[in-house]
Design goal:
CATH architecture of one domain: Orthogonal Bundle
Number of helices: 3
Order of helices and strands: HHHEE
Strand content: under 5%
Oligomer: single chain
Structural class: mainly alpha
CATH class of one domain: Mainly Alpha
Radius of gyration: 30 Å
Number of strands: 2
Strand order of the largest sheet: 1-2
Length: 102
């Protein structure tokens, strides 16, 4: 399949690409070549091949989620720049109070 120069200009315009005449000619040749390869693939009989979403089988690489002891509240707060009543104190995001007192 061969693309016309106008087709390439249209695609370049949709992609907001500014191309000079040499770039348009080069892109026309390259895109036509790619579409030619796709035409060859379209000639293959794939009726007996089931559709696949993944060619290679996937496996879960994450570790199992097992409960384990966590930090105590004091340990978690010991390096916090500010804390209030057992919680991290942070500056207000949408205005208002600037957080608890340290």
């Amino acid at each position: 399949m061969s693309l016309s120069r106008e087709d390439v200009q249209h695609v370049a315009q949709l992609a907001r690409l500014g191309m000079d005449d040499a770039e348009l000619a080069n892109m026309q040749e390259q895109l036509s070549s790619i579409l030619g390869h796709i035409d060859v693939l379209n000639e293959l009989d794939t009726d007996a091949i089931p559709p696949t979403a993944q060619v290679i089988a996937l496996s879960n690489v994450w570790r199992t989620d097992e409960p384990r002891p966590s930090f105590s509240q004091e340990t978690a707060l010991q390096n916090a720049p500010a804390h209030y009543d057992g919680f991290f104190a942070v500056s207000a995001v949408l205005g208002g109070d600037e957080g608890g007192s340290a």
